[in-house]
Amino acid sequence: MHPARLIGVVVSLGSLAACGGSGGGDVDGGNRGGGPGPLGPFFEKTMFFDRDVHDAPVASNSGAIISSLRAAGGWGNSDTFQIDFSINVLRADATTAHRTFVQGPDWSDPDCDVFDVPVPDGGNVEGNPDYQCADGGDCHLLVMDADAHQLYELWEANVDSSSFTASCLARWDTSIAYTDTLRGDQCTSADAAGLPMAPMLFTADEVAAGSIDHAIRFILPNDRLREGFVRPATHGTMTTGGADAPAYGVHLRLRADFPLASLPSDGARVVAKALQTYGMYQADGGNIALTARDDRNSTAKWADLLDSHDLASLKVEDFDVVDHGPMVPLTLDCAR
User: Fold this and answer.
1) How confident is the model over 32-57, as a mean pLDDT?
2) Buried b vs exposed e over 10-39: b needs ≥16 C-beta within 10 Å?
């Protein structure tokens, strides 16, 4: 769940034809280092999620943070470390029709970008079979145009033949080297932490190949997080956790001594190995901890690899906090 945002001005709706163009379907591959695929890596320069942290220093307050999470009830979802498979990454190209949109009521300015967005045929928003946000959820819409070096990530997107609304667009230039403030300090994105989403969604094809070569996106309930954020996050939201609670952007790493053989599937062991090597970055508020990519257009299928509860034995005590530097106070004063 994304934080409430300031209401901005309306983008001109313009001519809203039915979704057209070619290039529908999921991105095949796409994580930097996670398998070439026809589109190659999402980002052409090394990013924070590419960093091998298996031997990186543990934060001095790691024990206090983990204890705070345990006292608050551990993970969300009744302390079940569950996997969500509901987010697609769609492929666009030069033939894909672009659509203008109207800003939703939770729009933040200048955090969010105002550009036309490619809308491929046959796509969908998170948690829904098509582009209509019918379930009342975050309804993320992620679209990669590799030829144009653009990654479009939208929150609360809703698209039909005559209208297109969204509560935030973060457009990422995938050809540049971002600094540690990414799109801007104190600035949100389609996720509250200000991070890109698509590169941290692990895929069925990666798991089938036996290796996830990047960090993974995860979420925690906001009542278990403290106000403020740590790098690589550039933003947080109003939270109610205590002084020892983790901040937005916290980087957790599965302990090296966790018994991978105890997990119920090879797929679970592949994910757990990535959590030991690259870890996971907290990116948003919510209850289902781990996020994978939908498999509707991948070669491999989740039903053959991994159940949503195959990592349920992982508890917060099985993780360390990777040293992330000082906490940044939350001001909500976005500087782009």
Assistant:
1) 75
2) ebeeeebeebebebbbbbbbbbbbbbeeeb
